[in-house]
Amino acid sequence: MDDIRLLIDFGSTFTKVVAVDLDKEEVVAAARVPSTVESDITVGLGEALRKIEESAGPGDLKENEALACSSAAGGLRMVCAGFVPELTSKAANLAALGAGAKVIGCYSYKLTQPEIQEIEAVAPDIVLLSGGTDGGDEEVIVHNAAMLSRTGRTVTNIIIAGNKAAYDEIRAIFKDNSKNMLYTKNVMPEIGVLDVAPCNREIRELFMRNIIEAKGIARAKAVIKDVIMPTPAAVLEAAKLIADGCDGAQGFGELIVIDVGGATTDVHSIAHGKPARADTIMAGLPEPYEKRTVEGDLGLKYNLDRLQEMVKGREAPSGFNAIVRGFHEGKLPRTEDEKACHRLLSCLTVEVAMSRHAGRIEVVYGPAGEKLVQYGKDLTGVKTVIGTGGPIIFSGSCREIMEHALFREENPFNLKPKNPRFYVDEQYILYAVGLLSQVKPRKALSLAMKYLKPI
Amino acid sequence: MKKVPTIITGTVGMDAHVIGTKVISRALKDAGFNVVALGMQVSPEEFISVAQETNADAILMTSLYGMAELDLREFNEKRMEAGLGDMLLYIGGNLVIGRYDPGEVEPRFKKLGFDRVYPPETDIVEVIESDLKEDLKARGKM
Predict the structure, then answer these.
(1) How far is it between the farthest Cα atoms of chain A?
(2) FRET partner for A282 with CA separation of 20 to 30 A, picked from A141, A194, A357, B42?
(3) pLDDT band at residue A381 using 50, 70 and 90 as cut-offs
(4) Is the pLDDT of residue A299 over 70?
(5) Are B41 and A371 inside 8 Å of each other by CB?
(6) Cross-strand pairs, B61
(7) B13 located within any domain
(8) Chain A: residue whose CA lies nearest to B70
């Protein structure tokens, strides 16, 4: 009897299921149904599972061993607060993004009353509080803890990941407070050191214990084994596995994954990003080997004037403005012109998202001549770029869209990949690879290698 | 018992000299301080950000290529804005190109916010024992 595993993504719009035969290392069935998280998530899930049974044929699908990820009900929504913007605020932001969260607010310095009201208004799933190196500044994090302790019921979960010397005082502030408090290691324990892994673990556990419960997603546990991470975290796990390989099986080496979604574009880079030249000076907070950034949907986020600016000099289809206005109203691309517009927007989104994710170089002039200062990761030498997400996979022009991630001579200071091989996640299974990597990494890697299509 | 003072060291601006700041960092560690050594080519902004996050008690800046004044223009204003108005600031090395005239050079750097300004060939151990410890004690940091 073949070992079949189900891997599920409770997405924001669709519930997707993939059935994988672990012995044959094949995808045997896939299904996609509209999400029913608003009423009862198991309804949509049941429908998807029935479709899988129809395709895969009779046999034990082992639903109770199925693993899932989720971005339903708004995804994992987090607010970060730190001290100095380029230091602990950025470290907290990186920690949240690396855990697969959607960062809906990022604050620095002492929180003000209006900022607290903003935080209450967005009702985050988790507030992540950092600030001060260990043994460093306590004032800001303690002030912010006190402000947060007085928020209402819309702020429930708070993770403290800052100066450990302030923890006793913070615990005292939250004594007898009904908020769910978690204390973990400082995301920036020392200058020049980023330590987000402990914080990531806390976020993931909190997600599995409390957050999926609050969003009605935990009901799925009656049918499947567990919902173990937010969907973007599953894609990041897949990226890590494909890059690093596992137990004797080699990976692709350093790589970038670009995931163009309905509402956002995520970029994941698994790369050290060391400078190309030995005499380059590194500045700013060191960025993590596994880095994720998120860009809002350009089509929906930017107003038309801004888009017009970006589109100048490129061939925009006729009626561009009207078509984009249509997208704003929720229309999906149907005509040739609409599809061309959508492709153009995807191209621009990939370009902007990659530009923002990649590090940059500044030339400074000193008495010894030119010196290069690098912020972030140098991705010019990365040899693999993988595209995923509906707008890339179903576009009919994957390569054209993904080439917008390339380094450009006109802007040599933006350290994007120069000469990578491109692949597309044609079967839309990266999230499944990420989920499977948690229990069967070798098999997950084989699947990825099999189904990633070079383009 | 008072906490161990935190001292930030580094070579400011585009200066790539590193030996001076290493010697200073070593001497400070040997004297029992908590040292955050930023190395070379440290921007004024970075000194400020690091001082904020680490709640530092003093910054000992080095400059050997004679262009410190250029690197540090507006430094005093920036550090005030950052709430570091009473941060203890020292600078030393080769602060000017050409002959060093203390009567000429010191006031210029004190205007940039420095509490003490040192000429070339200063003995760091002496500075630590006679000036730094005194200044920190006077501010209740030791």
Answers:
(1) 76
(2) A141
(3) very high
(4) no
(5) yes
(6) B10, B91
(7) yes
(8) A366
Beta-carbon neighbour count of residue B24 at 10 Å?
27
Quick check: B2 pLDDT over 70? no
Displacement of CA A77 from its chain's centroid (Å)? 12
Side by side, the strands of the sheet bearing A180-183 are A102-107, A77-81, A126-129, A157-160, A180-183
ipTM: 0.79
Query: pLDDT digit string (tens) for B51-90?
Result: 999 999 999 999 998 889 988 988 998 898 888 988 999 9
DSSP H stretches of helix in A153-303: 167-174, 197-206, 212-214, 231-244, 298-301
Distances (CA, A) of A114 to A77, A84, A118, A155, A266: 20, 19, 6, 15, 30
pLDDT of B103 reads 94
Q: Produce one character per residue of A388-411: b if its CB has 16 or more CB atoms within 10 Å, e if not.
A: bbebbbebeebeebbbbbbbeeee
Residues of chain A found within 8 Å of residue B11, distances taken between Cβ atoms: none
Q: A407 vs A239, A280, A353, A381, CA distance in Å?
A: 21, 19, 13, 10
The minimal CB distance from B14 to the residues A87, A136, A364 is found for A364
For residue B1, being part of any structural domain is answered with no
Residue A300 reports pLDDT greater than 70:
no
Q: Give the best-scoring range by mean pLDDT among A157-166, A339-348, B67-76.
A: A157-166
Within 51-110 of B, beta carbons closer than 8 Å to A belong to: 52-56, 65-67
Helix segments in B1-86, DSSP class H = 19-30, 44-54, 68-71, 75-81
Residue A262 or residue A341, greater confidence:
A341
Mean pLDDT of chain A, nearest integer: 91
Topology at the third CATH level for domain A77-209: Rossmann fold (3.40.50)
What is the CATH topology of the domain spanning A4-73+215-224?
Nucleotidyltransferase; domain 5 (3.30.420)
Chain B hits for A188, CB-CB cut-off 8 Å, are 53
* Domain limits for position B16: 6-138
What is the number of domains present in chain B? 1
Question: In terms of residues, how long is chain A?
Answer: 455
Give the mean model confidence (pLDDT) for residues A1-7. Answer: 87
Whether B111 is covered by a domain: the verdict is yes
For chain B, give the longest Cα–Cα distance. Answer: 46
Q: Which of B38, B46, B53 sits opposite A132 (nearest CB)?
A: B53
CATH hierarchy code of domain A235-437+450-454: 3.30.420
Query: pLDDT value at position B14?
Result: 82
Enter the tokens of residue A241: 């596995």
- Of A128, A118, A140, A2, nearest to A60 by C-alpha is A2
Residue positions counted in chain B: 142
Q: How confident is the model at residue B1 (pLDDT cuts 50, 70, 90)?
A: very low
**Distance from C-alpha of B122 to C-alpha of B23, rounded to nearest angstrom:** 12
In 10 A of CB B98, how many CB atoms? Answer: 7
| Phi and psi, residue A229, nearest 5° | -165, 160
pLDDT given at position A316: 78
Measure CB to CB from residue B53 to each of A84, A281, A366 and give the nearest one: A84
Q: With an 8 Å Cβ cutoff, are B54 and A364 in contact?
A: no
Is B123 domain-assigned? Answer: yes
